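Posting this for the archive.
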Amino acid sequence: PTFVVLTAALGTMLAPLNSTMIAVALPEIMAEFDAGIGHAGWLVTGYLVAMASLQPLGGKIGDRFGRRPLVLGGLAFFGAASLGASAAPNLWVLLLFRMLQAAAGALIIPNGVALARQFLPEGHRGRGFGLIGAAVGIAAASGPPLGGLLVETAGWRSIFYVNLLAVAPALLLGWRWLPAGRRSEGSRFDIPGAIMLPAALVGAAGVLMTVGRDVGATVQLGAGLASVAVAVVFIRRELGHLDPVFQPRLFRNRGFAAASGGVALSNMAMYTLLLSVPLLLAERGESSSLEVGLVLTALSASMIVLAPFGGLLVDKVGRRVPAVVGLAMLALGTAPIALAGAGVTLSTLVASLAVAGIGLGGAGA
């Protein structure tokens, strides 16, 4: 079980690392390819949308055909896509390889975590998921400072090579220790649902990215209504399908719905902090890339320290108290930054990030 958790942690780290690391490389990418932020922004947004929309599909395929080959294949695929991105000759080829990275991550994350859940003993699951949460925190928070260091010393293409440092050991551990897992029999695969889910999310992301830009209101309204229509048709179809890619009925379970909401909103808060704090400090001109990384260490260090403890607490007292207290501390930590806005002092920023990190670490498992 220890090596299964370690493999899942290394594989899961790839997604947050590559979603935050590229943010500091965007100016150099835009300059080399003579691209505007509207196009280059899809390197971040398209990656996240693809990752979100394809994970239910990756998990469903793992349910049907077994998880080990999908985790190992996803790791190898992620490494190959990273090498392709590092050699991209233009923005559109780079975007293609970013989408392939996201597709590989969508295979790794749900199946790796499911294997950890399946093979960890009942009394050790909290600690196991606490370690995975710590790995996610390390990867997400180290993305901006690591990306800044790599861009300054070796150029933006180097940020894709660093993925191999996680892919290689994860492949070796997974090949040796990952069990085959269980397979399930199901009805005919839901291909239309697998197509409509990313279509709805891509459409919604496209509408949001045009807000404030020189795009006609009629175009925005039409695109928004089309996205809503696709989403409605998608939900109705999934509710009527015997074995859907996305199961809306799971949200009738209040515990599942609350946990999913907590994960979604806490991740939204974390990524907002990780992407906005470097931009804020850079705009004020008071911090170098290294100093920005040290500021973000307040978030990542407290998260890393508290994540295993939060998992241990789950094994001792149950899930409800650590989840609720941790999310409350996250809200408490982000409130001073939100209220002060661009005028937040450096000491308040560091202290608030530390409190938010404690909350994220305590609640994650």
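Residues 254-284 form the longest helix (31 residues). The CA atoms of residues 51 and 102 lie 5 Å apart.
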